[in-house]
Design goal:
Layout (H helix, E strand, L loop, with lengths): L5 E4 L2 H6 L7 H13 L2 H7 L6 H11 L8 E4 L6 H12 L4 H7 E5 L2 H17 L7 H10 E3 L6 H11 L6 E5 L14 H9 L10 H12 L5 E4 L1 E2 L9 H10 L2 E6 L11 E7 L10 H8 L16 E5 L2 H10 E3 L7 E4 L4 E2 L2 E2 L6 E3 L2 E3 L2 E3 L6 H10 L3 E4 L9 E3 L4 E3 L4 E5 L14 H8 L2 H10 L14 H4 L8 H12 L11 H20 L5 H10 L5
Parallel strand pairs: 1-8, 2-3, 2-5, 3-4, 5-6, 12-20
Antiparallel strand pairs: 6-9, 7-9, 8-9, 10-21, 11-17, 12-17, 13-14, 15-16, 18-19, 18-21
Helix pairs in contact: 2-7, 4-5, 5-7, 16-19, 17-21, 19-20, 20-21
Amino acid sequence: MPGTPQTTDAGSEVAASHDGAPSDDAAWEIVRSHERSAGSAERRARGAFYTPEDVVAAIAGMAITPDWIPDRVIDPTCGAGAFLLGALDRLVAVGVDAAEALSRIHGIDIDAGAIDAARAAVSSWARSHALAADSAAFEEQLDERIVVGDGQAGAALDWVFDERDALDRSTVLVLGNPPFATPLKGSPFPGAAGRFRHDNADLLGPYADLAAVHLAAVAQRCDVGDRIVLVVPQSLVSARDAEGLRQHLAVAAPVVDAWATPDRVFDANVRVWAPVLQIGAQRVDDRPWAAVLADALGGPAIDLVGEPLGPRIVATAGFRDEYYGLAGACFEAGSGDDVYRLATVGSLDPLWSWWGVRQTTFAKRGWLHPAIERSQLDEKVARWFARQCREKVLVPTQSKVFEPFVDRSGTVIPATPLLSVHVADDAEPLADGEPLTLDMLAAILLAPPIVAWARRRWFGAALSTTAIKLPASGLGELPMPADLVRWRSAAALIAGEDVPAGIEPTAVKTRSIVESVGLEMTEAYLGSGEGQSLYSWWLDRLPAIG
């Protein structure tokens, strides 16, 4: 059992430890044929997305190791048997006799046609290993071990665990790819899963998806020493309605390994990962799932321990009411008008607004000079608007790096989902006795160490695996650098960027300032001459400016 979680990008290291391609292509062709027989619309309706063979091999190789060989392998939603074949191949690869390997696998699925295909695939695998797969005894054994049933809350799963409990030495691996149905998209949700979610409200919120329900259900049945390795959406690491489940498993079943890929391996619009959870394992670090997944996908793993911005700032975000209120009061202004300019995510780059230069989209319309007529706002939105009429820093969300824009005039109004942050009126001075400034806030947001830290902190919350979705509350969590001299030096670089918004800068000038701030802030956090690889990583993520 590994003492430290090992993360693997796209399973490349695991694939190398596996004994090559699946041993019986005829068995895999049975799986593929069944999967092809179900149309895309049918699969989406059931939340059933089949796992490619190379992914199965990588995950099975990570779940079953020479140091951890299970006595039972259960796939509670086995479909046509892809993970059963992967488990069989892997068990043999680590030294288990083929006949013994067959006796250790169990598959359950609610689809009788899929179970027929799984039995046929496993029979083909057995024949390829010179086992008597055509005997009546073998067929009877297969009918007992690969069954139609509800793998989430049914007697079939209870039977497998009851059998395990009769063997004092037995350990269980729950391995598979459960359905991804989510009530947020109107997907059908089995009644048993809904009841389980309701009965376990301390673990699962009302919008927890089916994969989270399956994970919670098998975790309740597992015992100390067992492993759970299920393919789940990457969004599970940050989903609000799975927070209780994450907190519970962090103690009861720590992550000891993880497989992940940045690619979409299914025909569903979802990215996945597979944490290796071990019941009762020693928790070797306090990384949240978001950080584990981020590390598995690659990128700098950095921890920052500086004092957080906390009460020194005030951060806000607009919501639906503000969005529609601004939409009803938006008009196309002239280039020289003295107006309240509307800023959108698409109109901002680091330290720069493209208002009046490049068209942006707001409320399903294109605008060149979008402005807000204050008198057209209702009372509630007008109060929010008034709070935006001050000097502040605007921060787009869902970006690869943070792209702060300093509004020195207090006349730029943020459209949802832009964040707005300013220095609190009662903010305490910093350690050098001087005040925190807007330019210092912008410098923090441009700091490569902060981007790397935030990526691990909020990974999985954005729509893209390459983007970071920073919540308004998260701005107060951002740690400040210890080196105030370099921090103020970076802020001075930003303060010198006084070109009026709407006048196109040269790409060289704007990019140069942003890069210089990033370098200064890297050293402010990490020390002189440190963090070059981190800085290079940040440069690669930096958008083209100008």
